[in-house]
Amino acid sequence: MMAENIYETALQQFDQAVQHLDINPGIVKYLRVPKRELCVNFPVEMDDDSVQVFTGYRVHHSTALGPTKGGIRYHPGTTLDEIRALAMWMTWKCAVVGIPYGGAKGGVICDPKTLSLRELENLTRRYATEISVLMSPQGDIPAPDVGTGEREMAWIMDTYSMHHGFSVPAVVTGKPLAIGGSQGRAEATGRGVVVTTIEALKRRNLAMEDTRIAVQGFGKVGAPAAYLAQEHGATVIAISDVDGGIYNARGLDIPDVRAHFATHRTLTGYPKGESIANAELLELDCDVLMPCAMENQITAENAPRIKARIIAEGANGPLTPDADALLLKKGVFIIPDILCNAGGVTVSYFEWVQDLQSFFWGEDEINERLRRIMVRSFNQVMLVAQEKKLDMRTAAQVLGIQRVAEAMQWRGIYP
Ligand code: NAD
Rounded mean pLDDT of 291-314? Predict the structure, then answer.
């Protein structure tokens, strides 16, 4: 079966959402396309002295609400359409949580696992230089995504700073604390996933303590989501990464799993759980499923076998539209990606504000501000869903699109 094109998914969702809004058709036409797209082919000197040419992208979807914001992905399967979809979702996501940013995304077609540290640094610094025509603290602020992390963000910050002759920490977020990163950023996306899950559980008269959770993905989103869910009393029965998963009906001890992962760089071989395949994890008998890995994981094929009552979309686009429809029909509560995983961009926004002011906040303050924004946004999406009789995903899209369209209406069409 052909993999679903997530840009088509994003457009389909947009077309569906605008039917519930009264927006100027010209604005609808403009919001349906990315504002600007940059494709760069650039050389990197490899360890064996050969030169390889890599392809990267940076797409800005909308600047109506402010500078563009969105992660940079290093993945062999990255395409321009994928980056377009992720940029569009960033626009709605920022609007849903009420943060003054537009949407962007970037990516480089590469497998970071096959590159040495030096090659990764060369690639990152050159890609940062190539996209620096679009990137700035006032214009476009990248962040980590799949395959990148604080190390890459540090190189991007340093590269941009070298070009300008002084340090510019606010040009990128998700940096190490030592160079202007924020407390709480590393767990922020997972924390937001857990906060919105708690809200969804309340709507089903359930509490975290009574909940069995399966988490797909053990990266920057999945690992903190699993850890924080357990901290809130949930039983995390399974987790997985690209190599497969582990399962224990009595619950996994996430700090212990993390220690195993830190040593072995894989979940495989973890002694206090049975190994399971990735596909099996999705279909486990559990209350909450948190897909925190890649897009298109739940399709029309496996959706009928999903047993979870709540799906918290830590990843972007983990459900295909067909799967979405099937699961809604089954009564599954889906916390949509543009709400569920917005904790990352929220604390990225805090990081940017702190960098611009050179004044840093404590972790408790950050976590509490994040929690308030996530709960408020969850309630606002719920309200739209109830008032307009929509599912949560369409309601979130409606809320986000409406806010961006209103900003565009006020700003008018230049000239
Ligand atoms: P990451 O690279 O840190 O981790 C990805 C994880 O997914 C890894 O554990 C990897 O092994 C696993 N994985 C990859 N393919 C898999 C597969 N087929 N089955 C099971 N596991 C698989 O990336 P991340 O930052 O955690 O991002 C994960 C998702 O969350 C992406 O969709 C990303 O766009 C989204 N997201 C990330 C952030 C953030 O702050 N990092 C914010 C919002 C949304």
Answer: 98
Question: Percent of the chain beyond pLDDT 90?
Answer: 99
Q: Is 336 in the pocket of ligand 1 (CB under 6 A)?
A: no
Q: What is the pLDDT of residues 77-108, one digit of tens each?
A: 999 999 999 999 999 999 999 999 999 999 99
CATH number of the domain bearing residue 44: 3.40.50.10860
Mean pLDDT estimate for the chain = 97
Nearest CA to ligand 1 atom 35: 315
Verify that 204 and 119 share a domain, yes or no: no
Final residue in a domain of this structure, among 149, 179, 209: 179
For residue 352, which amino acid is it? W
Q: Determine if ligand 1 sits within 6 Å of the CB of residue 147.
A: yes
The reply to whether 15 falls in a domain is no
Residue 133 lies in a domain: yes
pLDDT of residue 1: 44
Which pair of structure tokens corresponds to residue 239?
Answer: 């987790």
Rounded-to-integer distance, Cα 198 and Cα 192, Å = 10
For residue 280, count CB atoms less than 10 angstroms from its CB and return exposed for 0-12, middle for 13-18, buried for 19 or more.
middle
Binding site membership of 240 for ligand 1 (Cβ less than 6 Å): yes
pLDDT at 238: 98
d(CA 42, CA 256) in angstroms, rounded, equals 41
Q: Is 145 in the pocket of ligand 1 (CB under 6 A)?
A: yes
pLDDT at 38 over 60: yes
Among candidate residues 312, 340, 368, the one where a domain is terminated: 340
* 111-134 mean pLDDT: 98
Could you give the residue numbers annotated as active site? 105
- Higher per-residue pLDDT: 2 or 45: 45
What domain range includes position 156? 34-179
For residue 62, pLDDT beyond 70: yes
Q: How far is residue 384's CA from residue 395's CA, in Å, rounded to a whole number?
A: 6
Atom of ligand 1 lying closest to residue 86 CA: 34
